[in-house]
Amino acid sequence: MKLVVLASFFISLGALFAQGPATMGVSEIRAGMKGHGRTVFQGGKIDRFEFEVVGVQKNAAPGRSRIMVRASGGPLADTGILAGMSGSPCYIDGKLIGALSTGIMFEKEPIGGITPIAEMLEQLKDIPDIAPSRTPLILPKLEPPKVLKSALLGQMLPFSEVMGDLDPQALPMALAGSPLGTEAQRFWAGWPVTFAAGPALSGGREEASPLEPGGMAAISLMQGDLDLTASGTITYVSGKRVLMFGHQLFNLGPVDLPLWSATVATTVSSYQSSFKLAMPVAPIGALRLDRNSGVAGILGAEARMVPMRLGLNLGGKRTLNFRFELMDHPVATAALAATAVAQTLDAHTRGLGFQSLSMQGNIKLAGHPAIQIENVIADLNPGRLAQYLGGMLQAICLNPFEKPVFEGISITIKAEERLDLTAIAGVRLLKARAKRGEVLPVLVTLQNIQGVRETATFNIQVPSSAAKGKATLMVGDGFSLMAADPDERAIETASMGDVVRILNGALRNNHAYALLVQVQPGAGLRGSRIEGIPPTVASLVGGDGASSDNRLQRRIVGRALLPLEREVRGLSQIEVEIE
Asked: What is the pTM of this model?
């Protein structure tokens, strides 16, 4: 039996609920008992529905129970339990027993599950008056150098690789809002979410439901020129504190997200899972706590989001400007930013023919230099550009040193209806030997998409510190060179400042580079390189966590840059003798 969650996406609660309605524990509930619940089926009016207890599911999860009920009233005979009813308070003999929180996919009658109120109170013990100044870092199930290297390759790590595989029984959260294209939905692969096929936009004239048990509310993950919200029902309100859902949003613990009043435009029947088509109406506060058995917020509070500006230049003919506000979270921020880029490009650039997209901008963090953004792609896949930005944000957000404080993300994308693509067609040297300290001329042949070739010259300095013997000259674009791993020394990061420095020094894909590489002895320990240790010791020391042989490592000893301002692809290598 597959259950689905029904949300369409410091004060002690003991003292808080002492003033609230009487409650009934799971041990008092028996099959056949009847009660009622409160929810919104249309507009902002709170309606009543009836239910009969089918039974209590003990140990639905370790130490957790679920009260199974058969509901009736309103449209439920036709729709079954609706996504968006999550949090609907349920009462027996005037006592609050919990919040309706689950339904059954493909159900033929309205049977659902109620999260016991005691479990909600247990997990939602403290609702902070002030947003946490430091949301705990989510340390990924991989080493920071892997996150960094992925960013330097212009790629995002998938959710499953960052956080591990989900529990196969995990219940997905339905998010409503701007319809997402195929490319944007790829960034959410592995996330415990599904996307509702309906808008979540407010025209400002809708009737908001009351801020009381049974009323409708929405939580905004992204707002502005693109909206993604999770909607559900209020379970309990006391003063400025509000409890909702009866299940997790993402079970992130302390959060800071905008909380909106909401209205229901209509209910949508579906054989798979019917849902409320809910729309946010006006901001009412901030969500501050996200736990397995529910979410909690503060009315009147203001959430802090990550501001993002995107300018889209359409071939110099006109410029469109977009603004977004993103959820500030170690894992979600990167996916939301990538989604904003992919959706914008999908809506405003061509899907067939020649096209080149160039991105420039910066990511501003409090207390650190701005991180520069620069990338060019020459194809019709906007996902590559979105992945590049998302990868940079993953490296920032998943750093193990400090929580980044975003001042803003600002990017400009220029779309040209031509193919700005250059391939590395060949490399040659005027001489096969080079002396230490001298300049080595390198001739590189470039070829565009029409087959026209041109020759450019690098002048690469051979350092006096280079070792005598063989070296490899590698010429290519930044991403191809990073994939070839020309420098096997461990990435040394001891602070957030190191992460910023590495990202700003990254090789780009709109330049050609010449790298002079030599193999040198050495091993790494805890991210630092140890020179000249005996082979017997080196065999026992782990380098960067990926190599089994740390006795010889490639090292970049010289480099040169050829700016081209178009996408470069290809990699050529040639041997050089250093004298």
From this structure: 0.81
